[in-house]
Design a protein that fits this description.
123 residues, mainly alpha, 6 helices, 59% helix
Length: 123
């Protein structure tokens, strides 16, 4: 951006915010990998980190599970687990126009709160 246009504009802030959140997600993944590498073998550290990353992408769905079909103990456990796992969806600042904020039960999405009005504009 700066190299091509020789100046920064307000529209470039969207890209910079997205890059910042990508960096934060990468830092969290590296921290998880380092934590697992302290007490397991390299292969298990890779598998645990990849598993937590995949589970972290779907934490919001874990929170939105219907509690009517679960026992109270299972509902409490899934709620507790959803707060324990990293929620990587919070780092998705991809300029989708706040489309995720319109989903049912997700009006105050963490993505919109974190990225502010940058996601309200299209890239």
């Amino acid at each position: 951006m700066l190299y091509v246009k020789h100046s920064l504009h307000r529209e470039d802030a969207v890209v910079l915010v997205a890059v910042y959140f990508i960096w934060l997600k990468l830092a969290l993944i590296v921290a998880l990998a380092l934590m697992f590498s302290c007490f397991t073998t390299p292969l298990l550290a890779i598998l645990f980190t990849a598993g937590l990353y995949i589970v972290g992408l779907y934490v919001q769905e874990l929170r939105n599970l219907p509690v009517e079909v679960m026992s109270p103990a299972m509902a409490a456990f899934t709620k507790w687990l959803s707060y324990l796992l990293p929620n990587f969806e919070n780092f998705q600042c991809d300029g989708d126009g706040g489309a995720r904020a319109g989903r049912a039960g997700d009006a105050d999405s963490a993505e919109h709160a974190l990225c502010g009005d940058f996601t309200a504009r299209s890239c």
